Amino acid sequence: MSGRPSPVLLMNAALMLNVIGFANYAAVLPALMAGTGFSEAEAGVAGGAFFLAYAIGSPIFAALTDSRPPRQLYMLGGSLGIAGGLLFPFLDSGYPALVASRALSGLGMAGIYMPGLRLLLETLPPALQSRGSSMHVSTLTLGLSASFAVSGTLQWMLGWQAAFLGASIAAALAMGVVRLGMPSPRPARSDGALLARLGKVYRTRGVALLLCAVAGNSWEGMAFRTWWVALLGFALLQPGNEGHAWLNLALATALTGLLAMPLSNWVAARAEAGRRHRVIAIAAGLSVVIGIALAMLLTASFWVVFAISVVYACFIFSDAGSLPPALLARVTSAERGAALALLAASANLAACLAVITCGVLLHLLGGATSLIAWQVTLGVMAAGSLVTSLCMLVLDRPERPPATGRL
Q1: Least buried of 40, 53, 76, 267, by fewest C-beta within 10 Å?
Q2: Which own/partner contact pairs does 247-251 have at CB distance under 8 Å and 24+ positions apart?
Q3: Contact at 8 Å (CB) between 140 and 15?
Q4: Closest by Cα among 267, 286, 287 to 277
Q5: How wide is the angle at C-alpha 200 spanned by C-alphas 336 and 197, nearest 5°?
């Protein structure tokens, strides 16, 4: 309709607001640990609670978009996000409250992300849906940087606790954007029970490998984003780097989105134009190489470590916008909700395990001040993109024609 803002613009703006509560925990993690005394393992479990709740909630919310208005589900998700931002530390500052707060925030993200993507797809004409979904997924990278920027600024001005309040306010604003600016299409009900639809999508040729690829990308990306600020804090402890201690690391890492989103959009465009699986495999493989290089150079000057870590973050997410369209291209329109449910479950279960695994590794190998602990942890992170690259290379192989018997 003339005069109405673009649905892509509205949904991307709302996503950026909601993602403030996605990475606010990672942005203030060193200050939170110092202020509360929580260990690396405890911090990892709390961070993992977000992704576990996201993994559990996403299939439910995504599958419900096949039969419920996605805008209605979006409002519920936003409400959960608001509650998560207020519970800790304002209503309760104990460790159980932190875990519960991150779980509520994870459920909130599940309630806005997949229903938001489905709402966008239902609103756009078919010719624009693939490009629109790629841009929406790529916006997540920019939103992560915005989260670091907002959370770092709030921490600098008001203390780390303000980052949680900021997340609640941003979620409320996002609800207003979607409620006032987006229509509320009611999709036709899908036939069959949820488990049957999930099974049908999973058995579709290539879907299992794509889900493994999504899991690998999320393993590396969410683990690195959660522990990135703490990693840079380790770099500041190295001889010769003490003069940079004045830096607000959350704000410094926020600049990444300005580079990562264009790169992700470029990779997505190349994937659409050519051999999709090979393009994604190359992008994921480069991420592995850069991750290993970062692990080997952690004792270099701070700006060298920072520059490599920025490049690493950009390449981690360079293929993120290409993976959902690759999956959706294999299913019918009526199966999108089920496909998105499986995608979300795979991505966030992997993220949950990765964040917890990295926290436990750091704790067991000497803590956040140990070089070997960080090197091993970075290697474990990079293994995720290795899985993604291998899965894509398998999918890129030409399919053999069916054998025919001789007469």
Answers
A1: 76
A2: 248/152, 248/155, 248/156, 249/30, 249/152, 250/27, 250/28, 250/148, 250/149, 250/151, 250/152, 250/155, 251/148, 251/149, 251/152, 251/153, 251/156
A3: yes
A4: 267
A5: 60
CA 109 vs. chain centroid, Å, equals 10
Instruction: Determine the Cα–Cα distance for residues 390 and 322; give it in Å rounded to an integer.
Output: 16
Name the average pLDDT for the chain: 87
**Distance from C-alpha of 273 to C-alpha of 305, rounded to nearest angstrom:** 34
Q: Is the Cα dihedral 366, 287, 62, 6 positive or negative?
A: positive
Q: What is the pTM of this model?
A: 0.79
Closest CA to 277 of 217, 212, 210: 210
Does position 177 have pLDDT exceeding 50, yes or no?
A: yes
What is the per-residue DSSP string for 56-103?
HHHHHHHHHTTTS-HHHHHHHHHHHHHHHHHIIIII--SHHHHHHHHH
How many separate helices (H) and strands (E) can be counted in the chain? Answer: 17, 0
Helix ranges (DSSP H) in 182-242: 194-202, 207-236
pLDDT in tens, 371-382: 999 999 999 999
Q: Please give the average per-residue pLDDT across 21-32, as a whole number.
A: 89
With 0-12 CB in 10 A as exposed, 13-18 as middle and 19+ as buried, what is 315?
buried
Residues in the chain: 407
pLDDT in tens, 121-146: 888 887 777 677 777 776 777 777 78
Report the amino acid identity of residue 256: T
> With pLDDT > 70 as the criterion, what percentage of the chain qualifies?
93
Q: What is the DSSP letter of 334?
A: G
Q: What angle do CA 101, 21, 113 make, to 5 degrees?
A: 105
Contact call for residues 284 and 321 (beta carbons, < 8 A): no
Taking CA atoms, 4 is separated from 165, 174, 186, 243, in Å, by 31, 17, 20, 50
Based on the number of CB atoms within 10 Å of its own CB, is 167 exposed (0-12), middle (13-18) or buried (19 or more)? buried
Contacts of 126 (CB under 8 A, 6+ apart): none
Indicate the residue type of 155.
Answer: Q
